[in-house]
Write a structure and sequence with these properties.
The structure is a homodimer. The first copy, chain A, is an alpha+beta fold. Chain A has seven helices and four strands, in the order E-H-E-H-E-E-H-H-H-H-H. A four-stranded mixed β-sheet of chain A has the order 2-1-3-4, covered by helices on one side. In chain A, a hairpin with a 5-residue loop joins strand 3 and strand 4. Chain A is globular, with a radius of gyration of 17 Å. The mean pLDDT of chain A is 96. Chains A and B meet through helix 3, helix 4 and helix 5 of A and helix 3, helix 4 and helix 5 of B.
Chain lengths: 203, 203
């Protein structure tokens, strides 16, 4: 088994944190955003969309999409459960993971792709859309702060994949977009401090 | 148990097709895109993001996000399996459902929201982004046509939620965007004809 990953990639980070929580390690081949060898024909055979990460099983089966890879490991290594323990919890984790993707992670990636100089000439940029997404992201950080009143983790009472998704979204916001958690977002800041101090956050 | 839905809504349609495949029916309360009562305070208590569908369980528990609702019903009514039957199949269905969301459904919704007169004054529109997404959508329809060579369904050998997601994406493309499957996309057209003739397609 082997994981194809991307150095400093947002989605590969989700999978690395997930694997660290499962105390799982496996061989990793890292690609690079500058050299972009994952856009070459040799790799497009493995994933025609050219996205990373991609998991290759021992029989050559290929699984792309971060959450698909995480879900595969969840079934291989059930403890600790990161997708919920009961039917209801699994639905709630799915709901919150999607909210974190749609409301935080995709907006953060859109701001990065559409406004950051790194992507000039590499991807088509629509600055007006980047600005719209930046405002959405700021608005949703306030919303999430309210949702975290009296809650330790996102969605259920146990660290889960929705926390991981929110973590990488806010890492992207802080790193690539210079958008930190505002001081008056006390619940979000408390949650951030807790999840960032887990050993898996260094994965 | 009760489902809050949206008349002609793209995501509610996914859930309705899913429920029809499970031969499940439940009380549905329909909202309307014109009157937008799901953006009123009375409904925002149920889902502060104001999105539909939302499932309300008998004890008042609320589950939003289409795929979270579908996953809940998958566990309640395992047959026919629409998320895959084995660990590997479940990872593959997750992978393909996400590809259908990220490569087809979200671009189709973006073109609709950013370029259609219906949304003028209701949502902030960035026409240049809508144009970019239209080109992506056309490109991805060609890609999917190639992926469907020799395949009856998307991702695994059985109708599944990735098929449903692709169905509603192409319904949106055809209905709201006047973007039909090009004639030379023979595999996609064959698949479309097969999935559209299932009784659930009328749900």
């Amino acid at each position: 088994m082997k994981l194809y990953s991307l150095k400093n990639g947002v989605n590969p980070r989700r999978v690395r944190i997930f694997l660290a929580e499962k105390r799982m390690s496996l061989p990793i081949e890292e690609f690079d955003m500058e050299t972009r060898a994952h856009k070459d024909a040799a790799f497009l055979v493995k994933n025609p969309l050219g996205t990373l990460p991609v998991l290759e099983l021992d029989d050559g089966t290929l699984i792309s999409e971060s959450v698909a890879i995480c879900r595969y490991f969840e079934e291989m290594i059930p403890e600790p459960p990161l997708f919920g323990r009961s039917s209801l919890e699994r639905a709630q984790v799915e709901m919150w993971n999607r909210r974190m993707e749609l409301e935080l992670l995709l907006p953060a990636i859109d701001v990065f792709v559409h406004t950051h100089p790194f992507w000039e000439g590499k991807r088509e940029q629509v600055a007006g859309f980047g600005d719209l997404r930046r405002r959405q992201l700021i608005d949703r950080m306030r919303w999430l702060d309210g949702e975290l009143v009296g809650r330790e983790f996102i969605g259920v009472d146990r660290y889960n994949i929705a926390d991981i998704t929110a973590q990488v979204a806010l890492l992207t916001a802080r790193g690539a977009l210079k958008l930190s958690i505002p001081e008056d977002h006390r619940n979000l800041a408390r949650w951030w401090s807790a999840v960032s101090s887990r050993p898996s956050a260094r994965a």
